[in-house]
Every structure is written in C-alpha cells, then in structure tokens.
Amino acid sequence: MRTITKKDVTKRTAALLGEKISTTEVIVDGVFNTLRDILMSANPEVRIEIRDFGVFEVRKTNPKPKARNPRTGEIISVPARKKTHFKAGKILKTKLKMPLDK
Asked: Residue 69 belongs to a domain with what CATH number?
C-alpha cells in the first residue's frame, strides 16, 4: 500500500495551481487545521460537507452499560464518546466502484 503524506498533497496542489510549494503549503496546512479544529470542537456532533468529495462527521456513540473485558471476563460499562465518520461523495464513490485493472 502506498502512503500519501500531506507534503505529497501540497506538491500536487502546487503543480495543479502553478504556484510555489511554500505558498501552497500554507494554504493546505490552513485547510487541514481548520477541518481538524471544527471536528475537535464538535459538541456533540458536527457535519462538514465538501461537495463532489464527501462528508466528514463527528457522531456521538451510545453508552454501553454491559461490556465484557475479553482478557479478564470482567463486566465494565463503556461511556458515550465521539467518533469520526467519512462518507465518500458521488463522484469519488463512482470512481472507487470501478473494477480493478489486471
């Protein structure tokens, strides 16, 4: 599996826009920091919709009053928490559903 880093995203964006990497890096960092801040400050839920790309959501989970620790067998309660969720947009989903080339 190939890993794409934020630096790779910055380089591709700079090439696409015909801008300097240093200029584009500030913008890409700003976008990621803003998305992170919005998701982290969700109280309790938030939805970020980016048309033609997808939706980022923070959802609240339900507490589980009876869960079992598999190692000890002890019954514990799991409190409610927040979790992130991403749902791909229509264009991205269509492209990902295409069959792989052999």
From this structure: 4.10.520.10
Angstrom distances, CA of residue 86 to CA of 4, 17, 50, 54, 71: 18, 26, 11, 7, 31
Phi, psi of 48, deg, nearest 5: -110, 115
Q: Which of 98, 100, 95 is nearest to 54 (CA)?
A: 95
Please give the residue range of the domain that contains residue 34.
6-96
User: What is the per-residue pLDDT for 65?
Assistant: 86
* Tens digit of each residue's pLDDT (9 = 90 or more) over 71-98: 998 999 899 999 999 999 999 999 989 9
Q: Distance (Å, rounded) from C-alpha 37 to C-alpha 35? A: 6
Number of domains in the chain: 1
